[in-house]
Design a protein that fits this description.
- The structure is a single chain.
- With 214 residues, this protein is α/β, with parallel strands linked by helices.
- The protein has one domain: P-loop containing nucleotide triphosphate hydrolases (Rossmann fold), CATH 3.40.50.
- It contains 8 helices and 8 strands.
- The strands form 2 sheets. The protein has a 5-stranded parallel β-sheet, sandwiched between helices.
- Helix 1 crosses helix 8 and helix 4 packs parallel to helix 5.
- It is globular, with a radius of gyration of 18 Å.
- The two termini are 12 Å apart.
- The model has no long low-confidence stretch (mean pLDDT 93).
- The structure holds zinc ion.
- Zinc ion binds next to loops.
């Protein structure tokens, strides 16, 4: 099974990706994780990409594409994979198509998780993280026993800059202008499965499995 998971930041892609990778026994190829692990990557292209990440700049498409292709060549991806965070614009999607066509590989499904902005902002904006151990809480859905204090170690709960409303809105804006068009691109090819991501993890997982005929 070769799949791509798409959806706005905070919609629950990570959770759905874990389900799908576990179910199909395929690797989770997340460009977010790849960029975070570039410090271990000693290839030329890895070092080049790291120089952009270190400067706080976006890694150019040509470099991102090469990193993904290299990852797809590894043994564990021979019989399938799940791409997450890639392609993030239509140029990357077209490049990936060209690469896959050369390798005689076809994407079987594009899973598009959807949720309204207000819900995403509520979900992420309510997140609080323990300064000491990194445990994650939520101001309404997963409250600590004592407000602002970690249950496990008494550490102080803070809101990460990434989780602040202004940051989420900016990331959603980038998503709608650059990444959402990719869904339209794949829709023309008839490969997109739209999933309502507003329910519980169990409900969303059930919808995905049903849509994939599992
Ligand atoms: Zn803690």
């Amino acid at each position: 099974m070769r799949m791509i998971i798409m959806g706005p930041p905070g919609v629950g892609k990570g959770t759905a990706a874990a389900l799908l990778c576990n179910h199909y026994g395929i690797p989770h190829i997340s460009t977010g994780n790849i960029f975070r692990e570039l410090y271990k990557d000693q290839t030329e292209v890895g070092k080049k990409a790291k120089s952009y990440v270190d400067r706080g700049e976006l890694v150019p498409d040509e470099i991102t594409n090469l990193i993904v292709y290299n990852r797809l060549l590894q043994d564990d991806a021979k019989n399938g994979f799940l791409l997450d965070g890639f392609p993030r614009n239509t140029d990357q999607a077209k490049a990936l198509d060209g690469y896959l066509a050369e390798s005689h590989i076809k994407i079987d499904a594009v899973v598009n998780l959807k949720a309204p902005d207000e819900l995403i902002i509520e979900r992420i904006g309510g997140r609080r993280v323990c300064e000491t151990c990194g445990a994650v809480y939520h101001v309404t859905n997963l409250k600590p026993k004592v407000e602002g204090i970690c249950d496990k170690d008494g550490g102080k709960l803070i809101q990460r800059v990434d989780d602040m409303e202004a940051t989420i809105k900016r990331r959603l804006g980038v998503y709608y202008s650059q990444t959402e068009p990719v869904i339209g691109y794949y829709e023309k090819k008839g490969a997109v499965i739209h999933i309502d991501g507003t329910g519980t993890i169990e409900a969303v997982n059930a919808l995905i499995m049903k849509a994939l005929g599992e």
